[in-house]
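Task card 7
Instruction: Convert sequence to C-alpha cells.
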Amino acid sequence: MGQDLLNIGEFARLAETTKRTVLWYEEKGVLKPRLINPENNYRLYSTDQIVELKAVMLLRRLNFSLTEIKKRGSLDKLFNKKRKALKEQITTLQVTLDDTQKYFDNLQQTGTLVKPVVKNINPLKVFCLDKTGPYVEIGHYYQEMRSYFKKIPKDTIGITVYEGFGGYQPRKAKIKICFVVKKGLEPKVETPVYKTILPKFKALTYTHRGSTTLLSILWKEFEKFRDKNDYKQNRNLSFEDLEFSYGNQVTEMVMPII
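Output:
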C-alpha cells in the first residue's frame, strides 16, 4: 500500500513547503491526502497533488480566500481567472523598475531626470481643437475631441500643442488638441475641429513611459537640461512645446530649438 505515493515529509519537500503547511491546508478542507494508511495513520499523497498544492499556495498569495479556493470548479480555471491581472501587475512593476533605473542613470549622465536627444520633426497634417484652460483638463479635452469623430483608428497619434511662450501655465494655458491625419480618421459634420499643418522643425525630445502625472516635473527637468546645455528655444513658431501621445502611457515630450 502506498508504493506509488509520497509520505507527508516527501510531499512537503517536493512542494517546497513544510509539513505544518500541508496539515494546515488539510485542516481547512482544501487539500486531503490521497490515502491514509489504516495500519499507522500515515498520510500519503500522489505526485499530481504537488501541482495542486503549489497552485493553492499561489492563489493565496494572489489574495484568493480559502472559501473561494474550496468552492473552485477546478484549480486551473481559478488560476487563469487571476492570470491576466497578475501579468498586468508584473508588467507595471517592471516598467516602474526600469523607469526608476533610467532616472538614476539620467541624473548621473546629465544632472537631470531626463536625457533628451535632438530630432528633426517633419511636417504633420493634423486635425485640431482649440482650447484654453488648466492642464488638469487636458484629458477631458481629448474626450471632447474624440466625440467629434465618426471613428478613431486604434493607433491614432494624439498631439498636445502648447501655444505662445508664457512658460508653465497650469491654470490658463492656450492649447491645441490634435490627431495626426490618417486613413479612417474622419470628423463628423459641423464640429469645431479643423485641419492644419504643423511645420518642420528641430527639437529636443524625450520619451516618457508611465503616468502623465509626472510630466509637469519632467518638463521642468527638460528646461533645466536645455539651459545647462545651451540649447536655444525656437520662438519663430506659434507654439512652445508639444506632447505626442502614442497610447499605453507613452508620451514623447518635444521642445523646439534653433
